[in-house]
Amino acid sequence: MYCVITADVNKSRAVVDRSGLQKNILAVLSETNAKFENDIVVPFTITVGDEWQGLLNSIAPSYQIIDFFRQSLTDISVSYGIGVGQVETSFMPRTSEMDGEVFRRSRNALNTAKKNKSEIIFETGNEPVDVLLNSICRLLFAVRSKWTNRQKEKIILYKNLRNERKVAKELGVTQGDIHQAIKAGSGKIYIESEEHLNYFLSTYA
Predict the structure, then answer these.
(1) Distances in Å between the alpha carbon of 64 and those of 93, 101, 146, 184, 195?
(2) FRET pair for 116, CA 20 to 30 Å: which of 45, 134, 138, 164?
């Protein structure tokens, strides 16, 4: 059972510098393909317009990859459809040349995400699992959407460094300022929930 992530930029026609956006996406996809090389069967590439897609060997790293996209493409809104299933054609250098259940589920999940204005939708073929995963992702998005830009910067840096003093030093503020931002944004609960989500995906895979 393979996993496909299909991503699409929301309201991309409103972006003034479309060429710059595409160059940025291409650079991030290149980084992603290198960083997650052991998890990727067919590399992430742009399929059409501002949409990209890649094939993974399992669902386990899917949220981590999306989180990498999220942290790398900070100025745009993106919807993600994650599908799990079989590949029914030969493996090719690009996913756009392939077909199968996993691709159909990923596409359907993306369409659902865009229709419901959700960030991430999973379609695994197991309804109880999908309900659980999609509910968690909606809650995480609801928490994150309330962060100010400054809160986001502090919480994400804390997520990467796991030390309030190091975050404070890097941002040139007090540790108390970092602690308050994390507390106000439910940062530790958010990070812990992401860790539990990744753990579930790894065991489910």
Answers:
(1) 23, 23, 21, 24, 10
(2) 45
Task: Sort 8 into a burial class: Cβ within 10 Å, 0-12 / 13-18 / 19+.
Answer: buried
CA angle 148, 150, 156 (to 5 degrees): 95
**CA distance to 17, 38, 93, 180, per residue, from 45 (Å):** 20, 17, 10, 40
Structure-block tokens of residue 99: 């077909």
SS (H, E, C) 52-92: EEEEECCCCCHHHHHHHHHHHCCCCCEEEEEEEECCCCCCC
Class of domain 2-125 (CATH, top level): alpha beta
Here the tokens at position 111 are 């369409």
- pLDDT, tens digit (0-9, with 9 covering 90-100), for 157-170: 999 999 999 999 99
pTM beyond 0.90: the answer is yes
Phi, psi (degrees; rounded to nearest 5) at 76: -130, 155
pLDDT score, position 166: 97
Give whole-number Cα distances, 154 to 2, 5, 70, 99, 187, in Å. 35, 28, 15, 42, 9
pLDDT 10s digits, 41-93: 999 999 988 899 999 999 999 999 999 999 999 889 999 999 999 999 999 99
